[in-house]
Specification:
The protein is mainly α and 90 residues long. 91% of the residues lie in helices and 0% in strands. It is built from two helices and no strands. The longest helix is centred in the N-terminal third of the chain and has 51 residues, at 3-53. It is rod-shaped and about 120 Å long.
Length: 90
Amino acid sequence: MNRRDFGKLLAELNNDLRNEIAELKTDISTTKRLNTSLKNYFDKCEDIVKKITDEETGVEAYHELVKSTKTKVDEIKLGADQRLQEISTS
């Protein structure tokens, strides 16, 4: 191998390495963007989970309140229906 061939080989190697470095930089940038997106996504998920499960203001708390209220309404309705039946038969 002469100097000229060796120089071409080095130039090709240098070019290949530069391309690989550029690809790595692109991959690093993409990974950083994805990492940021994932962090934002999980932060939002945590907020949603808190909104659902919070003991005082969460959706589950309101659901339990609604179930309790419905039970009370059903009891009152049953009593009113019974009273109406009594009045109707009297």
